[in-house]
Design brief:
Number of helices: 13
Strand content: 15-25%
Organism: Spirosoma endbachense
Distance between the termini: 27 Å
Order of helices and strands: EHEHEEEEHHHEEHEEHEEHEEHEHEEHHH
Keywords: FAD, Flavoprotein, Oxidoreductase
CATH architecture of the largest domain: 3-Layer(aba) Sandwich
InterPro entries: BBE, FAD-bd_PCMH, FAD-bd_PCMH-like_sf, FAD-bd_PCMH_sub1, FAD-bd_PCMH_sub2, FAD-linked_Oxidoreductase, Oxid_FAD_bind_N, Oxy_OxRdtase_FAD_BS
Largest sheet: 8 strands, antiparallel
CATH class of the largest domain: Alpha Beta
Cofactor: FAD
GO molecular function: FAD binding; oxidoreductase activity
Length: about 450
C-alpha cells in the first residue's frame, strides 16, 4: 500500500512522543486509559476533512472527541486516530431569530455563557462540562426537557463531514435522511463540525434540590411517579439517591448522609413559581429545601465542582415506564448500599414536550417511556473501581427485568449490538439503511455502533 502523508493542519498533531500526549489522550472518565497512535486537534472544518480522509486512506481506527464526556470513553481509541474538536468552540447567537450556531467542540457551559446574555437558553443536559456534540447526537436530556423537548427537538441544522470527506448540511430540507439519523443516532454518520439550534427565551429559573430522609424514599417515589406524569410542562424534576457532600451549601448535620431527593427546575414565569412549587413543598416536610431563583448557567454548573474530570465512572442505564411498589423496594435496597460518596442513581423524566414528538420522527426511539434511569458508580480512587462497578451492575441487574427494553445511549457503556438494537427498536433498520448510504465501510464505529449491513 502506498504511504499516505500525514496532512498539515491549522491545529496540532500529537503523537505518543509529544510532550502533551498524555494530557491530550485523557477523557472525562478516569477509568478509560487508551493510547491512540495520533491525536489531531482540529481548528477548522478543513482540518477535520483532512483527517477523515487520512483515516479512511490508511484504514486507521477513528474516534471523534468533542467534550470527551462519554462514559464509555468513546472519544478515544487504542492505536488509532482521534479527531479532537475541543479547539472548535466558536458560537454565534442571533437574538432576533432566537437561533444559536455552535461548533462541535463546545461544552454546555460555553453555549450557556453565549446565550444567557441575550436571555436565551438551548435545552441541553445537567452538567456544564458535558460536550455539546455528544449530548446532542445522543438525544439531549436535561433540565428543560419537559418544557422545550430534547436537544435534538431544537436542532435546526448541522454541518457534517462524511466518511468520503464531503462536507454537507443536514436539515429538514437538505439531506433529510441524515438529519433524521443524527437526531439520536450518535456519531455513526459523520463528524458534526457545527450545529444550529433554536433557543428559548429562558434566562432565570426557579430550581434546586429538595432532600428527604432515606427512610422516606418509598413514600417520595410513590408520590413522584404520579405527580411527574401530569405536571405542567414548565416543571421538571429528576429523582436521585445520593450522599450529601461535606460542604456548603449543605448544613453540617447532613454531611455524608445517604438521602433521596428531587432536583426541581421551574422554567415558567418566575412570579408563578410559588403557586406550582408550594404543593410540592407541602407534600412532605423535607430535610432540606434549596430551591430558589438562579440563572440557567448556574443551574447547569451546579455539579461541576463535585464531579471534576478524571474520576472513575461506571454507568448502567435503562428506560423505565413504571415505578411499581416492587421496583421502588429494589431501588431502596440498593440506595442503602451506595458504595461511595459520589455514586448515585437518577431518574430523568422524558414526558411533557419531549413525548409529543413521535418515535419515528427522529432516531431517538423512547418518547413513550416515562424516565431514563442511570446508575453510576463514581469515585476519585482507582482502587475503588471494582467496588463501584459491582454495585452498579448488581443494582441494574435487579431492575432490568422491569425496564422498557433499551437505554439512553449517552448513559451506556460498551454493551454490545443487542443493547444498541434494543435502544433503537423500530427505528433500527432505518438507521442501518442511512448508515449504509453515508458510511458503508463503517469508518465511524467507535460509538454505540450501528453496522451498515
Amino acid at each position: 500500500m502506498e504511504t499516505v502523508a500525514i496532512p498539515q493542519l491549522k491545529g496540532k498533531l500529537i503523537d505518543p512522543q509529544h510532550p502533551e500526549y498524555h494530557v491530550a489522550r485523557k477523557v472525562y472518565n478516569g477509568m478509560i486509559d487508551k493510547h491512540p497512535a495520533l491525536i489531531a486537534q482540529c481548528d477548522t472544518v478543513e482540518d477535520v476533512v483532512a483527517m477523515v480522509n487520512y483515516a479512511r486512506e490508511t484504514s486507521l481506527l477513528l474516534a471523534i472527541k468533542g467534550g470527551g464526556h462519554n462514559g464509555a470513553g468513546l472519544g478515544v481509541c487504542d492505536d488509532g486516530l482521534v479527531i479532537d474538536l475541543s479547539g472548535m468552540k466558536r458560537i454565534e447567537v442571533n437574538a432576533e431569530k432566537q437561533t444559536v450556531w455552535a461548533e462541535g467542540g463546545c461544552l454546555l457551559k460555553d453555549l450557556d455563557a453565549a446565550t444567557h446574555p441575550y436571555g436565551l437558553a438551548v435545552p441541553t443536559g445537567i452538567n456544564g462540562t458535558t460536550g455539546l456534540a455528544g449530548l446532542t447526537l445522543g438525544g439531549g436530556l436535561g433540565y428543560l426537557t419537559r418544557h422545550c423537548g430534547l436537544t435534538i427537538d431544537n436542532l435546526l441544522e448541522a454541518t457534517v463531514v462524511l466518511a468520503d470527506g464531503r462536507v454537507v448540511k443536514a436539515s429538514a430540507s437538505e439531506n433529510e435522511d441524515l438529519f433524521w439519523a443524527i437526531r439520536g443516532g450518535g456519531g455513526n454518520f459523520g463528524v458534526i463540525t457545527s450545529f444550529l439550534f433554536h433557543a428559548h427565551p429562558i434566562s432565570t429559573v426557579v430550581a434546586g434540590p429538595i432532600l428527604y430522609e432515606l427512610e422516606d424514599a418509598k413514600e417520595i417515589m410513590q408520590w413522584y411517579r404520579s405527580y411527574i406524569k401530569d405536571a405542567p410542562d414548565e416543571i421538571n424534576g429528576w429523582f436521585a439517591f445520593l450522599t450529601v457532600p461535606p460542604g456548603p451549601p449543605f448544613p453540617e448535620h447532613l454531611h455524608l448522609k445517604k438521602m433521596c431527593g428531587i432536583l426541581w427546575c421551574y422554567s415558567g414565569p418566575t412570579e408563578d413559581a410559588d403557586k406550582l412549587l408550594d404543593p410540592i413543598r407541602q407534600m412532605k416536610t423535607p430535610a432540606l429545601d434549596l430551591v430558589g431563583p438562579m440563572p440557567v448557567p448556574v443551574l447547569q454548573g451546579l455539579f461541576d465542582p463535585l464531579y471534576p474530570p478524571g474520576m472513575q465512572w461506571y454507568w448502567k442505564a435503562d428506560y423505565v415506564n413504571e415505578l411499581s411498589d416492587e421496583v421502588i423496594d429494589i431501588h431502596c435496597q440498593h440506595a442503602a448500599q451506595l458504595p461511595t460518596m459520589l455514586s448515585t442513581m437518577h431518574l430523568y423524566p422524558i414526558n411533557g414536550a419531549a413525548a409529543r414528538v413521535r418515535n419515528q420522527d427522529t432516531a431517538w426511539n423512547y418518547r413513550d417511556a416515562t424516565w431514563a434511569m442511570v446508575i453510576v458508580g463514581v469515585d476519585p480512587d482507582p482502587a475503588n473501581g471494582a467496588l463501584i462497578t459491582s454495585w452498579a451492575k448488581n443494582y441494574w441487574q435487579d431492575l432490568h427485568p422491569y425496564g422498557a427494553g433499551g437505554a439512553y445511549i449517552n448513559f451506556m457503556m460498551e454493551e454490545g449490538e443487542d443493547r444498541v438494537k434494543a435502544t433503537y427498536g423500530d427505528n433500527y433498520d432505518r438507521l442501518v439503511a442511512v448508515k449504509a448510504k453515508y458510511d458503508p465501510t463503517n469508518l465511524f464505529r467507535v460509538n454505540q455502533n450501528i453496522k451498515p449491513v
